[in-house]
Amino acid sequence: MTKLTKNRKIAIQKIDIGKQYTIEEASNLVKEITTTKFDASVDLDVRLGVDPRKSNQMVRGVVTLPHGTGKTARVLVLCTPDKEEEAKAAGADYVGLDDYIEKIKGGWTDVDVIITMPPVMAKVGALGRILGPRGLMPNPKTGTVTMEVGKAVEEVKKGKIDFKVDKFGIIHSAIGKVSFEPKKLVDNVREFIAMVNKLKPSAAKGTYIQSVYLSSTMSPGIKIDTKSI
Fold first, then answer.
1. Mind giving me the DSSP string for 43-80?
2. b/e code 19-37 from CB counts within 10 Å (16+ = b)
3. Strand 170-177 to 41-48 pairing
4. 163 membership: H or E segment, kind and range
5. pLDDT tens digits, one per residue of 40-88
6. Average pLDDT of the segment spanning 13-30
7. How far is CA 125 from the centre of its chain?
8. DSSP β-bridge partners for residue 48
9. Claim: this prediction has a pTM higher than 0.85
10. How far apart are CA 97 and CA 192, in angstroms?
11. Three-state SS at 171
């Protein structure tokens, strides 16, 4: 068992384990209990009453957080030469096609989002074994396979993120930074949960959102009263 640091002990003592906090209380508390010297990420864990092994209960979507995540996503656009200028003008960090496909085959995946277009999906599809496990495979459902590559880049840079439920029925996503004002964290959480609610599969039975926890890098989780969201 790892030894608790003094700071972590203090952080744990500030949380009432038996209590469910309002989203406003949790957003204030997560800032108080974070002891990292860097600007830690604030994360949301949402446990759903779904069976993700069944395709009709898979929950996956995109959301644009009102205040972004606090992190500027590195974007690679794999496109035909006639679209390169559009992608660069929109702020893409890397733009190209065959040269980047070769780099990825060689193990390079130093980006957060990959955007591509339907005519080159056959080439990009061959990278599935590398990109799939890293959550980088472009997908029309998340707006990352599109002819409007410039618009897609701008949306990602503004704070559009995609998410999906894991095999344990949990959605895990960064929704801001500890340096954010609590009000901004509250806005981001509300927007995220609203989108998750919209995506409720008709096949899901019982309580859909079972629990919601807010935490930061290295901090304990704070249980949120779902009625407050």
1. EEEEEES--TTSGGG--EEEEE-TT--SSPPPEEEE--
2. ebbebebbbbbbbebbbee
3. antiparallel
4. strand 160-164
5. 999 999 999 999 999 899 998 989 999 999 988 999 999 999 999 999 9
6. 88
7. 22
8. 209
9. no
10. 33
11. strand
